[in-house]
C-alpha cells in the first residue's frame, strides 16, 4: 500500500468519545487535514524514530482506506475502495495545543516524518460488512483503543464525498478515517500492535 501513496487525508474528531476526551466540540462537517507522503512508513515490526524531544507524543489508531481509482461524483465507497489497512496518527500533543491557541495550521503537530505508520493492506470487505469487525490498538500487551465504523460521526461515504468535492480524490490517495477514544502518550520502548478482529496486521516499536 505504501508504494502507491499520493495524498494522505486525515479526518479529525470523527468519534464522539474521542472529541469528548480531549474537550473538543463535535464538528458539523468533516474536519480534514493532510500529512505528507513522507509520513507514511510500514508498520512491519520496525523501530520507529519519532521526535520524542518535542513534548508529549500521542498515538491515535485508525482505520485507513485507499482509493483504487479516481473519485467521480455519485461513486460509492464500494466502487472507490478495494483495500484498507490500519494506521497510527502520531500527534505532538503539546505542539498541537500551542498552535491551536494561536490559530495556526496543525502541520507541525501532525505532519512530521514517520507520523503515519501503516500496516499491510487487506481486501476491503464492503461497507455493509465493515461494521461486523472492530479494530484494536494494543500497547505493550494491553488493549488501549477499540473502534468500529458504526461509531463514526461521519460515515465513509460522507467522508469520500466531502474530500472528493472539496479537495479532489485520486487513485492511491489514503484516508485516515479518525480515531476512537483511548488515545494517550507514548515513550521510547513502547510496542504497538494493530488488529483487525483477531488478526494482527502490523507491529512497531518506538525508538
TrEMBL record:
Domain Fumarylacetoacetase-like C-terminal: 8-193
Coiled-coil intervals, chain numbering: none
Superkingdom, taxonomy of origin: Bacteria
Keywords: Metal-binding
Pfam families on file: FAA_hydrolase
Recorded family membership: Belongs to the FAH family.
Protein name: 2-keto-4-pentenoate hydratase/2-oxohepta-3-ene-1,7-dioic acid hydratase in catechol pathway
Upper taxonomic lineage: Bacteria, Bacillati, Bacillota, Bacilli, Bacillales
Amino acid at each position: 500500500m505504501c508504494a502507491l501513496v499520493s495524498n494522505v487525508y486525515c479526518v479529525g474528531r470523527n468519534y464522539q468519545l474521542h472529541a469528548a476526551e480531549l474537550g473538543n466540540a463535535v464538528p458539523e462537517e468533516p474536519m480534514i487535514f493532510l500529512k505528507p507522503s513522507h509520513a507514511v512508513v510500514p508498520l512491519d515490526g520496525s523501530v520507529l524514530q519519532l521526535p520524542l524531544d518535542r513534548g508529549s507524543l500521542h498515538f491515535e489508531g485508525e482505520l485507513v482506506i485507499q482509493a483504487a481509482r479516481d473519485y467521480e461524483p455519485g461513486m460509492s465507497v464500494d466502487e472507490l475502495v478495494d483495500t484498507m489497512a490500519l494506521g497510527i496518527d502520531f500527534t505532538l500533543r503539546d505542539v498541537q495545543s500551542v498552535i491551536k491557541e494561536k490559530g495556526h495550521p496543525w502541520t507541525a503537530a501532525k505532519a512530521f516524518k514517520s507520523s503515519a505508520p501503516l500496516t499491510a493492506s487487506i481486501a476491503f470487505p464492503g461497507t455493509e460488512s465493515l461494521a461486523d469487525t472492530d479494530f484494536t490498538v494494543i500497547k505493550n500487551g494491553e488493549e488501549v483503543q477499540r473502534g468500529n465504523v458504526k461509531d463514526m460521526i461521519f460515515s465513509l461515504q460522507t467522508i469520500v464525498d466531502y474530500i472528493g468535492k472539496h479537495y479532489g480524490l485520486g487513485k492511491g490517495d489514503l484516508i485516515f478515517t479518525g480515531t476512537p477514544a483511548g488515545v494517550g502518550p507514548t515513550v521510547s520502548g513502547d510496542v504497538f500492535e494493530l488488529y483487525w478482529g483477531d488478526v494482527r496486521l502490523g507491529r512497531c516499536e518506538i525508538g
